[in-house]
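Review box. Two proteins, two foldings.
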Amino acid sequence: HAAILDVKLKYIDTDNLHRKKVAKYYIDNIINDKIVLPIVTNWDSNVFHIFPIRTKRRDDFLKYLIDNGVQVVIHYPIPPHKQKCYSQWNNLIFPITELIHNEEISLPMSPIIQEEEYKQVVELINNWR
């Protein structure tokens, strides 16, 4: 793994710039009132290893995207305070965390995603009702 990462490290700046370009495209072009986009206040502080968005109808949205060939995931499917490693917090209630957890879905994000692919994702999102 170290040898592979040593080679990949040479391209990290280029990879991060590409992810930022994709994130900027998503933010500038997703126009759907059912979607909550992340608020980016400092583009230099985020490399967008994931691109999370939110919707109240996550399950319907997830199915729609998958049915249309878009690979999406729910990152962190268990809220942090409900994870086994935080067993002392498992019975606590954090309404904002749980709301975000129930609405979050991560769009395709990668240093190799092609322009036609992320444009197709945006078109599908904008057409979702």
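Next protein.
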Amino acid sequence: MNRRDFLSGAIATAGGFVLASGGCTARKHAQRARKTAFPSSKPPNLLLFVTDDQRADALGAAGNGILQTPHLDALAQDGVLFENNFCTTPLCMSSRASIYTGLYASHHGIISGGQNLEPSLVQKTYINVLRNAGYRIGFLGKLHLGNVDDIKALCDYWWGWYDPDYFLYKSEDGLQEFHLTAHLADRAIEFIEMDDPRPFCLTVNFKAPHVGRDAGNPFQPDPRLASLYQDADIPLPPTATPAHYEALPSFVRNSEMRRRWSNRFDTPENYERTVKDYYRLVAGVDAGVGRIMRSLRLSGMAQDTVIMYTSDNGYFLGEKGLSDKHLIYEEAIRTPLLIWDPRLPESCRGRRESRMSLNIDLAPTLLDLAGAPAPQMDGQSLVPLLRNESPPWRDDWFFEHYYDAPGFPDCQGVRSGQWAYVRYIEESPVYEELFDLKSDPSENINRASEPSASPALEAMRARYQYYANTVIRTGRLARPAVL
């Protein structure tokens, strides 16, 4: 696809599937086409897509040869793909709070379901700051904070909730069934088509590809995608072996991640069924993104809209005999991040950015793009990286996971370009792991007790102590913070 033609033609039907929801009446986009909503000198529209449990390699542009994501791939082709994007806490509610606030979990305090974000922090979310800057605010989908009404009050358009249970729903008259992902796209298009001259910030929080509560079909894709990947060969991960599972510490082997592995990945048949449905859920998101992008193009607003696409955390698809997330391993912490900014010069587009980006960077980036003043945040704006500039940048970052639920080990650590260091803080004594990501990218060999790795271990302990002093001790969570 020629970059000059991006969002101006074939993208609407790339890949052969763009699904409309049966729950809403189709719109006559072409009849509503109009000039750009505001002059180019004004702030851009901001469109943030956040999926749930989508790992970084669940994307065609990331090299996945099975999964079809043509619309997201087009964004990567004409935008910037951040190859080393991570979440600082691989837990849905914690990561989403970090996305809204730009803060580490230690600073925003969200570590369990139903918690309220403190009122002072609600005021510092990118949602409220952009609202005060004159933006029209839309929010769709999964909020995963307890104080839903507080966030709803900040929005001009709202179709959100704490966390939906299922993927398939009936229309109010009971005559039609619609898939949640497609219906969120319908709502996003409705928001985009509103006649309002203000710049907008629209957050679309998909539940997909997170597991649903339907016990018979937890990863429930749109029925129209049921045959997608039917004949695909889904190879088992190299680390999905009994030997890799037995090499884990006992408290991980006996964790909830292992229990959830059963009936999802415990047999070749279950593994293939689960991964195909997981991929189908992602494909449904891609189709929804394609429809939303088409609406932007036909409404005349595409060239004034910055699009960001990411996920709250990654996901184990059977690696090491595990399911879900919750650990510092790459499958759980690495997430996709695509940013498409039509104002970027041609030389800055179609790039792959290797510098490390984090979920806490999204809020300051949105505010920077809008020219809005940012409150104090732990993250950094990615705008200089979008422009391919060379500002001082992080060499490592702080990892933390606390979950107020049984069966999930609390841990802290530091991830650098070469090393992953983790401390399981509930164990006595504290259990340490150290992985050399250059020689051991699958994190199979814990080198914490190897004499040859002692210099690296001491260096990572020192970095951990730095973060203990600057993040944990200044935070809201009472957790072990020293060596």
